[in-house]
C-alpha cells in the first residue's frame, strides 16, 4: 500500500501523509475506505507504531481520516475543510503567478510543469 523511502530526508510520517493524499488524488482511496490499523501498517512497513500514529493524527487534523472506535480508521474527506484548503491554494497560486510574471516565466513553462505534475499523479 505504501512505498516509503527509508533513506529520504523527508520524515516517514510525512511520507505516509503525502502517499495517502496521493492515493486519494489517484482514486486508489475513496471516502469510506478502511485504512490499515496503526499496528498492521507499522508492522508491514517495519517502522515504529508512533510514526504511523503521528501520520494518522495529521490526516485526521486535515479532515482526511476519521477513527471510529471499535471499527477502525477510514477515509472521510471533510468537504468544508477541503473547500477552505482549495481557497488557500487558489490564493497561493495567484501569488505564484505574480512571481512568474515578475521573473518572466512564460505560460508554456507553467503549462509544462502542470502537465508533468498530472503525469506524476
Automatic annotation (TrEMBL):
GO MF annotation terms: DNA binding; DNA-binding transcription factor activity
Pfam families (alphabetical): GntR (PF00392)
Source superkingdom: Bacteria
Keyword set, alphabetical order: DNA-binding, Transcription, Transcription regulation
Domain HTH gntR-type intervals: 10-78
Entries under CDD domains matching the protein: WHTH_GntR
Name of this protein: GntR family transcriptional regulator
Natural source organism: Anaerococcus porci
Amino acid at each position: 500500500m505504501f512505498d516509503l523511502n527509508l533513506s529520504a530526508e523527508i520524515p516517514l510520517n510525512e511520507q505516509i501523509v503525502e502517499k495517502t493524499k496521493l492515493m486519494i488524488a489517484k482514486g486508489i482511496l475513496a471516502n469510506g475506505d478502511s485504512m490499515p490499523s496503526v499496528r498492521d501498517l507499522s508492522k508491514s512497513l517495519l517502522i515504529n507504531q508512533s510514526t504511523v500514529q503521528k501520520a494518522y493524527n495529521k490526516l485526521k487534523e486535515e479532515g482526511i481520516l476519521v477513527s471510529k472506535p471499535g471499527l477502525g480508521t477510514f477515509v472521510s474527506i471533510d468537504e468544508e475543510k477541503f473547500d477552505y484548503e482549495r481557497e488557500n491554494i487558489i490564493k497561493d497560486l495567484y501569488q505564484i503567478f505574480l512571481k512568474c510574471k515578475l521573473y518572466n516565466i512564460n505560460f508554456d513553462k507553467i503549462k509544462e510543469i502542470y502537465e508533468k505534475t498530472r503525469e506524476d499523479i
